[in-house]
Fold:
Amino acid sequence: MNKIIPITPSTGGLVSPTSHVIGRDEEIELFWRILKKQGIALFAERRFGKSSILRKMAADGKKGFITIYKPVEGISSPENLASVLFDRIKEMDLIDEGTFKKLENFYNKATEVVDEFQGIKLKKLDNTWQKQLYYLFTKLTEKQKDKTIIILLDEFSIFLDKLSKDVASSVIGFFRNVTFEEGFKNIRFIYCGSIGIDLVLDKIKGAGHIIGDPLNHMYKHELLPFTDDNAKYFGHCLGLGCGLNLQDEQIDQICKRSNNIPYFIDIVFDKISKSKEITQEIVDNAFEEILDDTKGKESIKHFYDRIEDFYPNYKISVYILNFVSKSNTSVSESEIASNVLSNTTETDRIEINEEIERLKNDGYLLSTNRNNERIYDFKYSLIKSWWKRNKAY
Structure:
């Protein structure tokens, strides 16, 4: 085990300093290797540590790379995105002052009819923000031609979802086209989101937009919980930071009951740190508080909300999860279908199977085989217990 360092719970906030972002070294090294040749679509539910990884990559850097990190969840339009990326690049001093003056001049004067500026042909770009970003990326690559430029867009899927479907289609198409431009071959994007970007793209396609597969050039990576060893190490660091004298068995139990999910390990330590002596009852009570939460304070409610907000047949998905949550063992696909059809006649086996597949791909269900039939259970026992207690009927 690595040297134990004192870490205090962040209870869902940003981990600071980034040196306290632990347990993700293998993922980060994998990402650097991938980024040499392609971008990454990184997804996981809230509180798995996605933002912490991106911030650590941006803070630590890597030889041969320029990393530009920007959270975009609260940005309301592609015009604003063009502006904040310009400001971030300026803040990082990635382009010389004279070029920035030219850029500012262009950002102020650009219109939808401008097709060339200072010798740079802006192709047939329809929107001002496209022309601005095209010009910005051109100047950035000219200045950093010997580096691979990584643009890390945190919560990009949420940003995309808040746009009109027409605009969202244009944004995802523009960024994809940028990566295929010969002049931008050293630019990579990381799209990060607590809502699977595939769900957002499905909504865009459902609105009638033909966007193909705009991620077929990117490496898709689902961020999983900690490994057992990394979870235990994280627990020991939190124990030291909280001044707790915990036995190895107690830390192991907390990690196991948290399914090795960093946020839930963190929040349990935050709850028990207020006690002078850590007993089994204290630990049990901490988990009971998490399981009793229906207001979103402990972040489990997100698992329900994202289905209601993003699933095209969310009622079918809810029926499925209700049934699976009440079973003490894995259940077969045919058992799931029979139960759903007993609740509603407004569906069929094809639609039910599609929703099961969606839930599996989105991290809710885990699939195995029994007697040549697919069987399913919740991927995380903590989420299963919460769902059974608060949502199932």
